[in-house]
């Protein structure tokens, strides 16, 4: 083991009994010429080993920025984390100096992206990029690192791995490239994997392959998985719990079965109703009126109020609705959640 | 069959693959569209589904005349678009318009909305006299649910969904009978998708439009289409009414495609009929012999490599299916 691995254990304040990953009241803003865009406004999550948490939301809801803040890859400036904690096993990563933070990244928390072609380096072979991880983080010899790279490609089911490690990223198909990126993320056995729209750019038949591969690898390794997506079909297939984000806030959090059966927030309900369904053929879809808010000018009170059919006076008033506990492990930021639930 | 507004016969588009820098020689061809027959009736929506590389976007470009077919014909109201020239072609093209996928790149950022929607009138000046064009553009904006006063705004001042409405208004400008929609909602968020789908359906009812609706999202196609054609590597492999395709698919590829679509209902998890295909779509430059799907098909036999299955009604397939072993299999 190299010094990086050895010093992992002396990460100050590390408590193996503390939750795997806990995000508390995260705030991220982007200071731009057009004003301050408030991308994340108090997001909180918790993730346990072996669990799949889906962060669901439309473009601009802050789901990817949240992931970047957790990974410590937020571009700054213009991005600034103004408040909050990202605790890995009790250690607040946001307070760690960069050289300590690097030990966590890839080793403990890894990430895969939507677009594998731009996430991989086009001028190095896939084998080199995989082996580099083992050489830099584990101090392995060239030959050992190469063998580990082949083993990894085997694990993500790339046919003829021994021959293909000498290929460049552009020589792989979209699905195979996504497998390479998964291999790279899993190389150092992380405890948490963040997948940001991992199958959005892929065809449905390939998407099915990749999602079943991810589920299997997660089961084998008892990894915590954060799945960031806008696709309610994918979420229904794999998630244990869902956090729905809107305008930088988690507006509803619930176990997957509950949220599809009985959504408690008007936005979640409207999203589910706007999916084309078999029994709605020949009828109008229930569209959500209006547009998502501009992040430099988020409405006061509940950010969803201008588009909401339940909205009444209290919804327009600051502070925004608190996270009402509506059942064990279930919260919703809506004053009228009882009405939405149909009680 | 007088209500057929569009019909293609054995439509083929091959893109040559060239080698050499100074002296170019053709070494092969990408068979993007390889013998497609389809019919579109008045007021009907024909959904075309398939994965990337199956030729659905090339088909769209052929239909509106943005690409010239290698062979075959495109009959619109009895006229073959492929053989028309000059003024006849220009007039015929008014009748078939297109809505593009990406509302961000398909609108010129330096033109106002009024100029964008009014541009078809510049090209076809006989449709609306000059003096009435501004009013016509404002009427179009109103028709697609945008504020007519925004006529001098630029595309960047609109959201994605609103831009797609601008694209739809532009397609409507020349009062076409047929609109080819190439992935019209796939760049939009779910909450906005529903608005645009509703708009397209309302316009169809109001103006008696016929749509070719190209998409990879099977649930959207199911919602909007009356008939569906499934494409794989440049060919239609199965075609029929929406109920036939979705409830009684007979081609293995259609079955795999349907089973791969995630269903937004966690109660079905693990209880769905899932067919996970091996591998990727082969290159259209070098398609497999015989049936093009055989390299990924679990039913493939010797005959599939030797004899290409035709798109026919078969003993066990009540609608046309291009599989020697076509058989109904209910998915899920």
TrEMBL record, chain A:
Which stretches are transmembrane?
Answer: none
Compartment(s) of residence: Cell membrane
| Cited Gene3D superfamilies | P-loop containing nucleotide triphosphate hydrolases
Protein's membrane topology: Peripheral membrane protein
**Which UniProt key words apply to this protein?**
ATP-binding, Cell membrane, Membrane, Nucleotide-binding, Transport
Which is an annotated GO molecular function term of this record? ATP binding
Under SUPFAM superfamilies, the record lists: P-loop containing nucleoside triphosphate hydrolases (SSF52540)
One Pfam match: ABC_tran
Ranges where the ABC transporter domain occurs: 21-272
Protein family membership? Belongs to the ABC transporter superfamily.
Q: What's the protein called, per UniProt? A: ABC transporter ATP-binding protein
Species source reads Actinoplanes sandaracinus
Q: What is the lineage of its organism?
A: Bacteria, Bacillati, Actinomycetota, Actinomycetes, Micromonosporales
Automatic annotation (TrEMBL), chain B:
Please report the stretch or stretches of sequence annotated as the ABC transporter domain: 6-258
The answer, when asked if Ligase is one of the entry's keywords, is no
List the SMART domains.
AAA
Question: What are the alphabetically sorted keywords of the record?
Answer: ATP-binding, Nucleotide-binding, Transport
**Which InterPro entries does the annotation name?**
AAA+_ATPase (IPR003593), ABC_transp_ATP-bind (IPR050319), ABC_transporter-like_ATP-bd (IPR003439), ABC_transporter-like_CS (IPR017871), Oligopep_ABC_C (IPR013563), P-loop_NTPase (IPR027417)
> Which family, according to the similarity comment?
Belongs to the ABC transporter superfamily.
Q: Which domain of life is it from?
A: Bacteria
Q: What are the recorded GO MF terms, alphabetically?
A: ATP binding
Q: What is this protein called?
A: Dipeptide ABC transporter ATP-binding protein
> Organism source for this protein?
Actinoplanes sandaracinus
